[in-house]
Amino acid sequence: MGSHHLLEALIRAEGSMAATVLAELGVSPDAIADKVDEIDADATTDATPQETAARKMELRVDGDEVHLVFRDEGTIGLTKAVQELTGGGPIRATGPLAGRFVPLWTQTNQLLMSLLQSLKPEGEAEGKDVGKAALLVRRVLHDRLRRRQPPADAS
């Protein structure tokens, strides 16, 4: 979570000192959201090298397969090196390599469960005692994801 998420959550914390100050300065939630979308997070101190690489990733479903796509140069280089050592074809979780894929499977499923929990509408979130700050951040993350999604194909 970056400082921009906190900033968007602060202005939405109705009645808070931060929201009041920002409103009195003439700053609106929409103005903050628009400016956050405009600025490249990778050009700020919020972005670690790992986050910059992760922003190039994509996770999608194609039929009955899930594709995890990495686009950063480091991962591409490492994958090519391993692929060369394993015969040049796809790297599969078979034989002696099967156990090496377990952490990837585990972490991917944990990530998906975490995303699912974070993106659920407020009333559906597990643990009804979720704090006000967590709800505000969840709302901001949900709004940002919605703003950043490309429009559905209208075909």
CA-CA gap between termini: 35 Å
Order of helices and strands: HHHHEEHHH
The helix/strand class is: mainly alpha
| Cα radius of gyration in angstroms | 20 Å
Uncertain segments are: none
Please outline the major beta sheet: 2 strands, antiparallel
Name the overall outline. Answer: elongated
Helix content: 40-55%
What would the average pLDDT be, to the nearest integer? Answer: 84
Number of strands: 2
* Number of helical elements: 7
Order of strands, widest sheet: 1-2
Number of folding domains? 2
- Beta fraction of the residues? 5-15%
List key phrases describing it.
two-stranded antiparallel sheet, single chain, 155 residues, mainly alpha, 7 helices
In short:
The protein is mainly alpha-helical and 155 residues long. Helices cover 53% and strands 6% of the residues.
Give a structural overview.
- The protein has 155 residues and is mostly helical.
- The chain has two domains: 110 residues, no CATH class; 36 residues, no CATH class.
- Helices cover 53% and strands 6% of the residues.
- It contains seven helices and two strands.
- A two-stranded antiparallel ribbon has the order 1-2.
- A hairpin with a 2-residue loop joins strand 1 and strand 2.
- Helix 1 runs antiparallel to helix 3 and helix 1 crosses helix 7.
- It is elongated and about 65 Å long.
- The model has no long low-confidence stretch (mean pLDDT 84).
